[in-house]
Structure formats: C-alpha cells, structure tokens
Design brief:
The complex is a heterodimer of chains A (about 800) and B (about 290).
Chain A (H helix, E strand, L loop, with lengths): L14 H5 L14 E7 L5 E7 L1 H4 L4 E5 L34 E2 L5 E7 L2 H9 L2 E6 L6 H6 L12 E8 L3 H6 L3 E9 L11 E7 L4 E6 L4 H11 L7 E4 L16 H13 L3 E4 L2 H7 L6 E9 L5 E13 L7 H9 L9 E9 L13 H19 L3 H8 L8 E6 L5 E4 L4 H11 L5 H10 L3 E13 L5 E7 L5 E5 L8 H13 L6 E5 L16 H28 L6 E4 L2 E4 L6 E3 H7 L35 E7 L5 E13 L6 E11 L6 H21 L29 E5 L22 H13 L5 E2 L3 H9 L7 H9 L4
Parallel strand pairs in A: 1-12, 8-29, 10-11, 14-15, 20-21, 27-28
Antiparallel strand pairs in A: 1-5, 2-4, 2-6, 3-5, 7-15, 8-13, 9-10, 9-12, 13-14, 16-17, 18-26, 19-20, 19-25, 22-23, 23-24, 26-27
Chain B lengths: L6 E3 L4 H11 L3 E4 L5 H6 L7 E4 L9 E4 L2 E5 L4 H5 L2 H6 L2 H6 L5 H4 L4 H7 L5 H8 L3 E6 L2 E6 H4 E3 L2 E2 L6 E8 L5 E8 L9 E9 L5 E9 L7 E3 L1 H4 L9 H11 L10 H29 L1
Parallel strand pairs in B: 1-3, 2-3
Antiparallel strand pairs in B: 4-5, 5-10, 6-7, 6-10, 8-9, 11-12, 12-13, 13-14
Helix pairs in contact in B: 11-12
The chains are: A alpha+beta (about 800), B alpha+beta (about 290).
Bound molecules: flavin-adenine dinucleotide.
Keywords (chain B): FAD, Flavoprotein, Oxidoreductase
GO molecular function, one term (chain B): oxidoreductase activity
InterPro entries (chain B): CO_DH_flav_C, CO_DH_flav_C_dom_sf, Diverse_Substr_Oxidored, FAD-bd_PCMH, FAD-bd_PCMH-like_sf, FAD-bd_PCMH_sub1, FAD-bd_PCMH_sub2, Mopterin_DH_FAD-bd
Chain lengths: ~800, ~290
C-alpha cells in the first residue's frame, strides 16, 4: 500500500523550496516598509540621565523616534512574566523601551523609524543617551555574593529558590557507605539561529485590523500579547510565522519588545514597519542559556549504587525573568536521568546578573542536568575503580519498572512519571556501537601516534511533548486537496513533511495531495508553540485525530452513496472503496463535494451536490449535529509529558603538545518511541550533536567583568563549522509511548543534551585530570595540565601504577 | 549593521583612482576585495566618506613569476595565488600560506595585496611578506615607489603609507638555493584567523649542514617580525639538528598577547611547537634540494 507513509524516510518536501531561495523569511516580506532600528544600552548597568534626540532630527528620511516617554497604557508597564511560579518570588521584567535603568548591554532604549534601515541607523547613531554607571554583576558566584544588586529591591539577587526533595537526604547521606562531593561549572551559549528575530506589521486603517509577521515559535501567543498590550480586540489581530530560519528556543520567548513596538509604530504611523534583527543585536539583546554552578553530594555503596543525591544549583537567569524559572526547573527534575535515585534533593537559586536574559535554548536545562548526573556517575566509577558503563548499568531503572514515578514535579506542573523506556537496552546498544570494550586498544594505538585518547559516555531521559494542548484541522476539498493546519509554528524541523506523512497514512491519500500550514493564526487560532520537543507529539497527534475524524465522516457519507456499511469501507490512494468489491468505490474528492449540500453550482464538480441532484428528501440536507464540509478539528491534550531517552559516547584525541581536542568518534543511541520519519529524526540528532560539541568545546559567552560581551560576532563566537563536527553513528531503539495515539516521543532536542557530559568524560579519560568546568578550550586545557591545583583522577593514578598509560 | 553613507567611485584607470584619492583626501579608502573593509563599514567601526573601488582598474590582476621572485598584482585574489603552480615553484610559501587564509568564499574575493595593505598581524600574507624579505610597490600622484616590508608595517592595521596611494603589487623574493619552507597554523575552527601560525625557511650548506633558519609568526605580536633562529642549530647536520631547541629559542624571542581565544602563554607554547614541527618539514625539503643540486 503506497499511502502508509508513517515511519518512512520520506525526503523533506520543504527543502527544495528553501534550498533554491524560495523561502519566505521575515525580511523577504514588505520591501517598501519603513524600517526600525534601536539605540541599545552600551552599559551593563546604568541609570539613564538624559536622551537627546536633536542630532537625529535633521537626518533625511527620519520618520519617528520613540522612548519610554512615548509608551502609554499597557505598553508603559513591564513586559509580562510569561510563566509565573510560586517559587519565583521576585520576578522582574524589563519595559519595551528602558525606563530609568538599563540592566544589560543591548537593552533597547530608543526606537527609530525611518525610510530604510540605513537611514534608521544613521539617525540612531546621532541620538545621545547619557548614563550614570552602576555596579555590574556578572557570573553566578558574583551574583550570589551580592556585593551589588541587579535590581535595587532584590538585594540578594535571588529571583527564585526552587526546591524539590523525594525524601530526607541528610540522614540518607549519613547512612551511605560512601559519599563524595564536588563543584562544577558550565558556561553560557545561545540558540544562534541563522535568521535572527524579526517583525513586520501592517495596519489596515479602513478595516481597523492589524497583520503581523513575526519570526517566532509561538504566533498564537504573540497575537494575544499584541492585542493585550496595544489594547486591540483579539479578532482584529492576526499573526503569522512565515518561514522561520531556525529558532532553537530563543523565538519561544514573547512578546519581545520589538514584537510590540513595531506594531505600535505601524498603527501610529499608518504605514508598514519592519525590523529585522542583525547579528550583533542577536548576541546582546536576545537570549542565552546554560550558565550554572553545581554543587553535588552523592551517597553510594561499594558496588556503585546511588543511595542519595543532594544537588545545589546556582542558575544564572540574566537580568530579567520573562520566561520564569522553566530552565532551572528542567535542570532540577531531569537531573535524575535514567537512574533509580532512592533519595534526591535539589535546591536551585536562580540569580540575577547584568547580562542578557536566560531562556530555553535547545535542551533547555537538560544539558546541565545531564552534566551533573553523568559526571557524578563518572566520579563514582573513578572512586571505586569500576567501568563507567558498569556503574551506570547498576543504577538504571529496569524495563519492568514502568511507569516509573520519580516523585518530582516537572516544568509543566505535572508529575515526572516516565511512561516507557528500555535503558539497559540503550546502554547495550551504545557499548556495541561505540566499541566501548576496545577503548584500551584504541588508547594504546593513539599513544603510538603521540596522541592521548579518551572515551566518555552519557545517558539522559528527556521529558518531551508537554501540554497543555495542540490542535489540528484537516479538510478535504472538492479538488481532492487535503488541507492540514496546526497553530504550532515551524522553525525548519520538517513539519510540512512529518505532518503530511501522518495525514497521508491516517486518511489514505497520496502525500502529494496534502498541504500543511503551520503557525498562521488565520488558519488555526489555538496553539501553544514549537519548543520542548513537542511538535510531533502534540500537533502530530492532534492532526492524526483530526484526520481520523475526517476519515470517519468520509466513510459515513460514502457508505450512504455506496449503500454499504462504513465498516466495510477503506480509503486508499484517495479512493473510498468497499473492501474486496472492485468497482464499488467513490473518490474522496467526490465525498468532499457531497459533504457540502449546495444551492449554487459554481463549478462542474459542485453540480453533484446541488439541490436537484441529491435524492433523499426525508432528511434535512445537513443532519442534526452534523456540519457541512469534509473537515474535522481536533485537539490533543496529554495527561503529562512523554519521556524519550538516549545514550551518547564520544571518543576524543588530544595532542599533548598543543592541547588541541579532536572528537574522532561520536555514537548515539536514540529512543523517541515510534518514529514518524527516521531521516528527519536523524537530521535532528545530527544538528543536536553539532550543538552539543559546540557547547562542549567551542561556544561560550565571553562577558568581561564590566558586562561587555567580548565575542558578539560570528568571528569570535566559535559556532563550529562542518569541519569541527564529527561524523555521527546512530542506532535507534523504539519504545512506544503509551500516552498518545501515535506512540511517539519528542526528538528535537535530544542530540544536544549529553554532549557536554560525554565529552568532558572523554577528555578526563584522555588526560587523567579532573574536568570541572565546561566548555574547555585548548588554552584552558593547557592551563589545567600545568596547574598544581588540578586533580589527577584515581583512574589515571591506577593506570600509571599498572603502566597502561606512560 | 548598515554602513554610514559614503560616496562610491569606480575609476577606470590607476591615474583616475589616484586623482579621486587626492581630491577626496583623508576620507577616501581604497576598496579591493572588501573582505576586511566591508565588515568594518557595516559595524560602523570605519566610516570613510568615499570608497575608491579599484576592481575596474586594468593591469592589476597578474601574477608575474621570474627567477627572482613573484610579483602579485593588487587585484590577484588569494585563491588565484593559492593555485598558481609557477609561483609556488619559485616561492612555495605563497601557496602554503594562502591555503590557510579564511575559507574559499573569502579567498575568492579577498586580495593578497589588500591583506598586506590592511596590515593585520593575524593575516598570513603580512607574515609571509616579512619572512621572504618582500616589498610592495605603491603608486602615488608623484610616481611609484617601493616600500620594503620592514618599513611598511607600523602597527596593527597600520602601514607607513599615507596620502593618496594605491598599492599596485607585492613582491615576494624567490626561495634561496638549498632551502626549504613550511607553514603551519593552529586555529580554533578550520579557516579561522590563526591562534598562532608559523612560517619558516631553512637553508643548508653544500654539506647538508644548517646554515640559516628564519621564522615568522601569525597572530603573535603587533606587526610581522622575522626571527633568526640559526644560533640554535647552526652547523648541525640536517638529520641531527635539534629543531626543538630552535622552538625553545623562538619561545624566548616572541612577545604574544592574550585574548579570549588564547592566553599569551599558550601562544608562546604554540610558537615553540609549531616552530619545531615546521622546521623539521622545511629541513627535509631543503635536504632534498641539496641532494638535487
Ligand atoms: C570570515 C573572514 C575570515 C577571514 N579569515 C582570514 C584569515 O584567516 N587570514 C587572513 O589573512 N585574512 C582573513 N580574512 C581577511 C581577508 O583575507 C581579506 O581579504 C584581506 O584581509 C583584505 O583583502 P581585501 O582585498 O578584501 O581588502 P579590502 O577589504 O577591500 O581592504 C582592506 C583594507 O586594505 C586597503 N586596501 C586594499 N587594497 C589596497 C590597495 N591595493 N592599495 C591600498 N590600500 C588597499 C583598504 O583601503 C582597506 O583599508 C578573513 C575575512 C573574513 C570576512
């Protein structure tokens, strides 16, 4: 059967269009629009003492200048705290344009609108803002020390204290045969999509309606925010996410100041206005993630089984908390990974710093969580002289323990109950794929070439597909076209293909007939967004349910026409037929025509549905409880998240003269339940691994003590090129989720999660020194190797003793 | 990230270019491949009043190779030099170094002479000009002149050329007899500006003994310098020479700076390592040259 496409490696149908330049990204829209540019704070913390716009006024082409003083009503209030939480006791957000105080370099202070972006920047350059500088807080340790405060009224810089525990950790630690404690750090990186953020707004003064295009991951909620902030009725605002050139999390935050200010100006000026973020703006005005300090104490027995775990996380949330404490909650709750942790306590202090806000970046707190847990496993193995894989194996949740309740509360407010999984299966597959047992042979072989070789692994469990819901709409047209829409947006993941595969399979139509629209509030107004590896799980299932609804209705109508029982009908290749009775069939497109009783025959096909053609006059044309049209709308709202899992291994080679670090092998075993399209899943894993390697070895946000970002360009922010990303070997395991109709789990973020942990482990294995801060660069590794304070691992000492390592 | 307003001139001859440069004065800048200048403009780190685009000036795009050396015209792209076999035979450092300049897309536009005129101490070709003891030819309204590399580089992104001038070519002298070269660098990502680069020339005597060793580094120091490392290995039979000792000597001669990608100490380490490695390679080439004689 040709239409069963679910599970097939169908080529991404959107690629041809995107690759040849026919994509429609934000900046492709509105060539004649006025352009906005922003004057942004050059200081990390300062009081604004004056804004002098005089110099800009005679720039030809200047249209308008806005400062905080020009904002009225809800626009003059702080931006929303999108995800409130009872433990976020001191939430703070900025204003669309800074009011009195700026708290990070890049905060918008003045908006300039002009005939084009060049002119807007000319004018912006001439606006003089004067400041009184205030003390600057950079880094979690400085924030916690609180010698200066980011917000006057939060003197200890602590925005939230998040705390979860599954038992009494202190007695459990005291009773543990062994304990160990350590502190480690992980640095910031950022989403860095190729396309930055961007907004285009058009006000129709006659219609009194607003159309906004935004490069966003959440168009429905942007719409609601714009309506609320600009005092518009929701029905007069439409928001469309056009092709989005990557998001990776940064575009889930909303409303960004620009998403409000650009429409505000468009309405005020009665003209189209556009703003497309440039790269420097993206570095200093969008969002970052990942910086944490982690203090870990673990209790364990002589076999390496964990008895208790106590973790304190200092989490850097940047200058404001518009996205609440989602990232640290995810760290806190995903830290336990695939392991049985009898007693677990986690305390997070989420602290303010004078830096760009911290909101989810692919992985969203999980790479940090994985780093904490997996490095703990490495430490236990090192202490006991055990194989790192064996220690992990002894702690894994077993396949017969599902559903497994960790007794924690997840980021969606729901319990952390793992729905399904086979973690020993993952580990076995990884050991084979990565050739774990021949590490010593590889090490000797590399040593003969003058290289230090090390291997590391990391496992993770990832809560994916959180609610509250997504919806799908499927409609069959009289032409046979099948229109599919979901309010969830796309950022390049291949939704057009995956969703079309689901509909083609569910409905029995050729995939060529299926057209998918995402993130357009004109087509679907209820949605949450694309983040947290949720698109396939949430919209995929909603769309499947919608398609099933259409199928049911189609069979009902066709059964009438064919005088058959709906149960005897099947749909294949767009033809409804009585099973086993050749010739007794009706095309689905005809069913679509018949589903809509007509008075007017606007085309040839429509004639079949007009009032003198249809026969049965014993019933109303549209039966009670029915609706015209062959379409169905449905929603999927899960009881809780579904938990995907995986295991990665990295092999690194280090040059002991230059301390260059080369990832020579990277192995991934991945379980995201039933797979809609393995080619897309592998692509997601590859991209994730690239970002994992990036976070481990290349990328960081180099803030100096004054809060200036020293590497705010692609020249100095070292996003790896293809030449730095290793080849990836992938093996799949499929443990279906019992929670949703399609049995799927999310796959979007998985690839990035274990990178830092696995690579840290591999480097430590290679050099025999403890790695406690990631990412690590050659210059830092050189310092570590020379430092008298750096700790030699017990494994290295043992190897030296037995002569395995020279 | 949009440049401030500027005037644009695209002269059709060198004289015309010089005339515009004279008329516009200090506010005018030559535009060659644009690979360094345009980013500076876009970030508004430079705002020249006029750009004088020399891409339409005829006669500046030739690589001339003679027994004395290689003359590279102002419009020769890095990529053309990289693939010029005749030039590589006379001075192998040209291809070896240009292979390390950025990525193909940038090498296709950026010019070698522009890179020298830009005087970036992180550029490979400034260092190669120094190492080969090269010079540039400068056209001015009062006629052409030659500037030796030693007199050219004044500071980072700063040359001694002032007033209306177009660098029309760079001259890289030929590799001396019984000599070999090597070039290596370490960058955080392939094609990036080097964290540290090293170019070396080893010259032997007729008996395969080390006669001269010179090295120049990339991203080390404010201007290109040439270091004579001969003392560390002078007179050694080539197969016994202690190149590590030459590396050690080099470490003591350089004065690198630290930045977010590498500490000064790390750069110094790399100077030592790269010197040792490139010298061994260059020496082997020199030995082969002596054998051929
Ligand atoms: C991403 C990226 C990576 C790069 N990596 C490297 C690298 O690894 N190594 C490296 O060496 N370079 C690198 N570059 C720079 C590149 O090599 C440039 O091409 C080169 O530095 C300048 O040459 P150009 O022809 O582009 O000069 P332009 O950008 O046009 O000009 C540069 C400067 O030189 C002046 N100038 C140019 N030509 C002349 C002339 N004939 N007479 C007088 N003045 C002149 C200009 O006025 C300007 O001030 C990189 C560039 C980019 C964008």
């Amino acid at each position: 059967m040709t239409t069963k496409l679910f599970g097939e490696p169908v080529r991404r149908r959107e690629d041809a269009r995107l690759i040849v330049g026919r994509g429609r990204y934000l900046d492709d829209i509105g060539h004649t629009a006025l352009a906005a540019a922003f004057v942004r704070s050059p200081h990390a913390h300062a009081r604004i003492t004056g804004i002098d716009v005089d110099g800009a006024l005679d720039v030809e082409g200047l249209v308008a200048i806005y400062t905080y003083e020009d904002l009225t009503g809800p626009m003059a209030e702080p931006l929303p705290v999108l995800i409130p939480h009872p433990q976020l006791t001191e939430p703070r957000t900025g204003y669309p344009l800074a009011r009195e105080v700026v708290r990070h370099v890049g905060e918008p202070v003045v908006m300039v609108v002009a005939t084009d972006r060049y002119v807007a920047e000319d004018a912006a350059e001439r606006i003089v803002v004067t400041y009184d500088e205030l003390p600057v807080v950079v880094g979690v340790d400085a924030a916690y020390e609180a010698r200066a405060a980011v917000h006057d009224d939060v003197p200890d810089n602590v925005a939230a204290r998040h705390h979860q525990e599954t038992g009494d950790v202190e007695p459990a630690l005291a009773a543990s045969p062994r304990t160990l404690s350590f502190t480690q750090y992980i640095e910031r990186s950022a989403s860095m999509p190729m396309e930055g953020r961007g907004v285009h707004a058009r006000w129709d003064a006659d219609d009194r309606s607003l159309r906004v295009y935004s490069s966003t991951q959440a168009s429905t909620s942007v719409r609601a925010a714009i309506a609320a902030k600009l005092d518009l009725s929701l029905d007069t605002v439409e928001v469309i996410a056009p092709d989005v050139g990557g998001g990776f999390g940064v575009k889930i935050v909303h409303p960004w100041p620009e998403e409000l200010l650009v429409p505000m100006a468009a309405i005020a000026l009665g003209q189209e206005v556009k703003w497309a973020e440039d790269r420097r703006e993206h570095f200093i005005s969008s969002a970052h993630e990942r910086q944490q300090r982690q203090d870990v104490t673990v209790g364990f027995d002589d076999e390496g089984r964990v008895t208790a775990l106590d973790v304190h996380v200092l989490h850097d949330n940047g200058a404001y908390t518009p996205y609440g404490i989602i990232v640290p909650i995810i760290t806190a709750t995903q830290l336990v990974g695939p392991y049985v942790i009898p007693v677990y306590r986690v305390r997070v202090d989420s602290v303010y710093t004078n830096t760009v806000i911290v909101t989810p970046y692919r992985g969203a707190g999980r790479p940090q969580a994985c780093y904490a847990m997996e490095r703990t496993m490495d430490r236990i193995a090192d202490e006991l002289g055990l194989d790192r894989a064996v220690v992990r194996e002894r702690n894994l949740i077993q396949p017969d323990q599902f559903p497994y309740d960790h007794h924690l509360t997840f980021q969606d407010g729901r319990p952390v109950i793992y729905d399904s999984g086979d973690y020993p299966g993952l580990l076995d597959k990884l050991r084979t794929l990565a050739d774990w047992s021949s590490a010593d042979v590889l090490r000797d072989e590399a040593a003969a070439r003058g290289k230090l070789l090390g291997i590391g692994m990391a496992m993770y469990v990832e809560g994916t597909g959180p609610g509250p819901y997504e919806g799908g709409h499927v409609q069959v047209l009289g032409s046979g076209k099948v229109l599919v829409s979901t309010g969830l947006t796309s950022q390049g993941q291949g939704h057009e293909t995956a969703f079309a595969q689901i509909v083609a399979s569910e409905l029995g139509v050729p995939i060529e007939d299926v057209e998918v629209t995402t993130g357009d509030t004109r087509r679907f107004a209820y949605a949450v967004g694309t983040f947290a590896s949720r698109a396939a799980v949430m919209s995929g299932n909603a769309i499947a349910l919608a398609a099933r609804g259409v199928r049911e209705k189609a069979l009902r109508i066709a059964a009438d026409v064919l005088e058959a029982d709906p149960g005897d009908l099947e749909i294949d290749e767009g033809l409804v037929q009585v099973r086993g009775t050749p010739g007794a069939s009706i095309p689905l497109r005809t069913v679509a025509v018949l589903s809509n009783p007509l008075r007017y025959a606007f085309d040839e096909a429509a004639k079949q549905a007009t009032q003198f053609t249809t026969h049965d006059d014993s019933k109303p044309p549209v039966a009670e409880g029915d609706a015209p049209g062959l379409e169905h709308r449905d929603y999927y709202s899960p009881i809780r998240s579904t938990f995907a899992s995986g295991a990665h291994a990295a092999v690194v080679e280090i040059d002991p003269e230059t301390w260059e670090i080369d990832v020579v092998r990277y192995a991934v075993v991945h379980d995201c339940g039933n797979v809609v399209n393995p080619m897309i899943v592998e692509g997601q894993v590859h991209g994730g691994v690239a970002q994992g390697v990036a976070g481990a070895l290349y990328e960081r946000m180099a803030y100096d003590a004054d809060g200036q970002l020293q590497n705010a360009s692609y020249m100095d922010f070292l996003m790896p090129y293809a030449s730095e990303v290793p080849d990836v070997d992938i093996d799949h395991q499929q443990t279906p989720s019992p929670l949703n109709p399609l049995g799927i789990k999310g796959a979007g973020e998985a690839g990035v999660i274990p990178g830092t942990a696995a690579i840290a482990s591999a480097i430590e294995d290679a050099v025999g020194r403890r790695i406690t801060s990631m990412p690590i660069s050659p210059t830092e590794l050189y310092d570590l190797m020379r430092s008298e304070d750096s700790e030699t691992t017990a494994t290295a000492a043992r190897r030296a003793g037995t002569g395995v390592m020279a | 990230m949009k440049p401030a307003p500027f005037r644009y001139a695209d002269p059709g001859t060198l004289d015309e270019a010089l005339a515009v440069l004279s008329a516009e004065g200090a506010g005018a800048k030559v535009l060659a491949g644009g690979q360094s200048l345009l980013p500076l403009l876009s970030m508004r780190l430079a705002a020249p009043a006029t750009l004088v685009d020399i891409n339409g000036v005829p006669g500046l795009d030739a690589v001339e190779v003679t027994g004395d050396g290689v003359t590279v015209g102002a419009l020769v792209r890095h990529n053309a030099l990289l693939h010029d076999d005749a030039a590589a035979r006379v001075q192998p450092l040209l291809a070896r170094a240009t292979a390390n300049v950025a990525h193909p897309a940038i090498r296709n536009r950026g010019t070698t002479v522009g890179s020298i005129a830009h005087a970036d101490p992180s550029g490979e070709m400034t260092s190669v000009l120094a190492l080969t003891d090269g010079s540039v030819t400068v056209a001015t309204p009062s006629g052409p002149s030659t500037v030796e590399w030693r007199d050219l580089f004044v500071g980072p992104l700063e040359t001694s050329i002032s007033g209306p001038a177009v660098v029309t070519s760079a001259f890289f002298p030929a590799l001396p007899p019984r000599s070999g070269t090597a070039f290596a660098e370490i960058a955080r990502r392939k094609g990036d500006y080097a964290v540290c680069g090293a170019g070396v020339v080893v010259t032997l005597d007729e008996d395969q003994r080390v006669a001269a060793v010179r090295a120049s580094y990339v991203s080390v120091g404010l201007t290109p310098e040439v270091h004579d490392l001969t003392d560390a290995v002078i007179g050694s039979p080539v197969e016994k020479a202690d190149w590590t000792a030459a590396g050690e000597l080099a470490r003591t001669l350089v004065d690198p700076d630290g930045d977010i990608h590498a500490s000064a100490d790390y750069r110094r380490l790399l100077v030592g390592v790269l010197t040792g490695r490139t010298l061994a390679e260059a020496a082997a080439e020199a030995a082969a040259a002596v054998t051929r004689e």
